[in-house]
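ARCHIVE CARD
Drawer: 12
Card no.: 0347
Subject: one protein chain, sequence and derived structure
Cross-reference: see card 0346
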Amino acid sequence: MLKNKESYLCLSAMLRAREPKLLNGEKASRMLDASTFEEAAKLLTDCGYDDMSQMRTSEIEQALSDHRKEIFDELERLTPDPVIPDLFRMKYDYHNAKVILKAEAMQTQSDHLLSDSGRISPIQLRSLYHEEKYSSMPGTIGKAMEEAAEVLARTSNSQQADFVLDRAYYTEFLSAAEKSGNSFLLGYGKLLIDAANLKSTVRTLRMGKDRDFLRDALIPGGNVSVDRFLTSTDKEALASLFTYSELEKAAPLAVEAIDGAPLTAFELACDNALNTYLGKAKLISFGGEPVVAYLAAVENEITAVRMILTGRLAGVKSDTIRERLRDFYA
């Protein structure tokens, strides 16, 4: 259960003061319209980033990872309830779990893909996995890694192993959100699951996979039940599942994607639905909600920064990058 809202007064005020520094549409446009990559990168220093104007792609990735970790660490120290930053760290633990299992199965080196933003360092996670000390891992990730490894060994199918880890991640996230007693956080968790399930349904139908495959991919606990997804695989029924919900605009784009349209617009609409939901936190003066929204905004900002900077380095046209950017919280 989250502590009372009054305990968040100082932290909420601090984050509200920081929000104007977040990357927004106007700042992103200036980066995209800058005459050079170096000029675009220097504009980010106003948002609290280190100067990345002389960095290459791998260095940018490391700088963004360090920036995220610094913010996570700071808010973990300052927030009255560590559960909130832990929820945002959680997905990096599961990302690392996927990397570790696949690297071992393929006998490849993949340390460069590991993230330091989780609740446990990736090196320690790998060590505990090798020692089969699953109970020493945070949350339910130990049990999930053990199960995913068994699936991978039995089937040699990394996608099925991913399904195990994805289900464990969303289930653990939702469980922690429920225990927090915060309806905003719980609503965010359910919407994350809805968006993930809608994406899985679209991909399953595009690939022509059967209902059993879809059942393995779906996550329980969202606003729309797994059974409703499984019985709504025709396009009209699928679109109707999200009438009057945050994903209402994404649903017709899901139908278009099933028919062969590029996934970009559909996935963009799913992510924007999450950002729209998080925008409701602006109406809440203090409490856990501004912390949740700020952390999600930072994640979205880092994704946008990566897209802009690596796109500019690769010579991608600014209009093409602009079309792929998600809505901004700021």
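Annotation on reverse: The radius of gyration is 20 Å. The domain at 83-181 is CATH 1.20.1690 (V-type ATP synthase subunit C fold).
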